[in-house]
Write a structure and sequence with these properties.
Layout lengths: L1 E5 H12 L13 E7 L2 E7 L4 E7 L1 E2 L2 E2 L1 E5 L1 E6 H10 L4 E7 L3 E5 L4 E7 L20 H11 L16 E5 L2 E7 L4 E7 L7
Antiparallel strand pairs: 1-7, 1-9, 2-3, 2-8, 3-4, 5-6, 8-11, 9-10, 10-11, 12-13, 13-14
Helix pairs in contact: 1-2
């Protein structure tokens, strides 16, 4: 795998995906990003066994070229190290080349780094395909649901089921509920009548 990419777009993609990376993991492959260069662009996948994030850095945005000089492939690179290396590089473009599935050479024209990497075959199979129950909701409505209910969720992992927000779609409403067993928060917004889950 090889590509030259706009630094800011690459860093933006890494930061989005890094939200799913934990500080510790029983499975060490989950401390890395799965990078896949394909026809669509650079796919970045991250997971911590609880959540997974997939993001795409496209080859171009309109007339602006973002990725060039690429060859297809996949690799698994430590998320923290890669993000910090890209963040500290000063060039506008970064070249990354994976050699023999073991070493990733990263260069911005001024600075060179080499990071150990692994084959992506070692990364768990994460299914991020849309299911049959999909719907769209305005961003501000989803934000309002989360902001008005998340405070009531348990913030310690002593009872993991109480650390989440329960979403229920029924009767033309999307209802979010959260509790820590001492307090309860519930908020609803309107959605399409046909959505039920």
């Amino acid at each position: 795998m090889r590509f030259t990419i706009n630094k800011n777009e690459f860093l933006k993609g890494l930061l989005i995906a890094s939200r799913a990376i934990g500080s510790k993991s029983v499975n060490p492959t989950l401390l890395g990003f799965k990078l896949e260069m394909n026809n669509d662009g650079l796919e970045i996948t991250a997971s911590n066994d609880d959540i997974a994030i997939w993001t795409l850095v496209p080859q171009a945005k309109g007339e602006k070229e973002i990725i060039r000089n690429f060859s297809f492939g996949t690799s698994l690179i430590n998320a923290h190290l890669l993000t910090e290396v890209v963040r500290k590089m000063e060039g506008d473009e970064i070249s990354l080349e994976v050699i023999d599935d073991r070493v990733a050479k990263i260069d911005d024209g001024n600075t060179n780094f080499q990071l150990n990497c692994q084959t992506a075959d070692e990364y768990p199979d994460i299914d991020l395909e849309k299911g049959e129950n999909t719907f769209s909701i305005p961003c501000q409505d989803l934000t309002k649901l989360v902001e008005t209910t998340a405070f009531a969720a348990l913030d310690k992992n002593t009872r993991p089921i109480l650390t989440a927000i329960n979403l229920k779609g029924e009767g033309g409403e999307l209802t979010a509920t959260a509790t820590d067993s001492a307090r309860l928060s519930k908020k609803s917004v309107e959605i399409d009548e046909s959505i039920r889950f």
